């Protein structure tokens, strides 16, 4: 015998599933002194790199190393991350003691959260069959969004100058001199000599690339993988049109620098 329950829809609220974009910190050490030093080196001169972004602390890399059972000072970690305008909200991947300590510091356990790289850097996965709900709710069609336009710089960048294209590509129409730095969350296009530092995919976009009409950089980096001028560029690329891209392989990620000449 079936029972039918009467129901009425509330007029003051609705409950919907939502997706929150999170930045993930893959913690590889419990030494917060080392973490503070390296974050200062990386982000200390870019005070607006983060904009109070919600953050997931992923302890998975810590578990894979020699410090798997090391206690983490989560109150100090939260304070450190907030100095860089990050808002730690959740934690995953730790052992029981670490997760409990994280909860005491106000972090929510999120063991089911996933940390993904861009689609080009992930290996294909087998499809997973999911149970069909008895009464699926209607899904509204997604609203198309217009991607942000690129930031365009049409003046030479001198030593000490820095440009950051947050959430978009960067196009530079003039020379990037030694000591200057160009940073973008997307691609970097330099239609002139590139002699300073170029950091593309600054927030982990492994699909980002760097293009330059004359490739002679002090440093190039994509998604955290970098190469400095201490390792000279090949003669077929140095001072010539070229591109830099990130390639994943059995030994890890590596930068590939290629000539754009036919």
UniProtKB/TrEMBL annotation:
GO terms in the biological process aspect are: cell morphogenesis; division septum assembly; regulation of cell division; regulation of cell septum assembly
Q: Which residues form the Septum formation inhibitor MinC C-terminal domain?
A: 152-245
At the top level, the lineage of the source is Bacteria
Q: Where is the composition biased (Pro residues)?
A: 135-146
Give UniProt keywords alphabetically.
Cell cycle, Cell division, Septation
User: Which positions, given as ranges, span the membrane?
Assistant: none
The family database entries (Pfam families) matched by this protein are listed as:
MinC_C, MinC_N
Q: Which InterPro entries match?
A: CAP/MinC_C, MinC, MinC_C_sf, MinC_N, Septum_form_inhib_MinC_C
Extract the ranges annotated as region (Disordered).
115-146
Q: Which ranges of the sequence are coiled-coil?
A: none
**Matching Gene3D superfamilies, A to Z?**
2.160.20.70, 3.30.70.260
Q: Does the keyword Cell division apply?
A: yes
Has keyword Cell cycle? yes
Residue ranges annotated for the Septum formation inhibitor MinC N-terminal domain, each copy included = 13-88
- Name the family the entry cites: Belongs to the MinC family.
Q: How does it assemble?
A: Interacts with MinD and FtsZ.
What this chain does, per the record? Cell division inhibitor that blocks the formation of polar Z ring septums. Rapidly oscillates between the poles of the cell to destabilize FtsZ filaments that have formed before they mature into polar Z rings. Prevents FtsZ polymerization.
* Protein's name in the database: Probable septum site-determining protein MinC
Tell me what organism the protein belongs to.
Answer: Hydrogenophaga pseudoflava (Pseudomonas carboxydoflava)
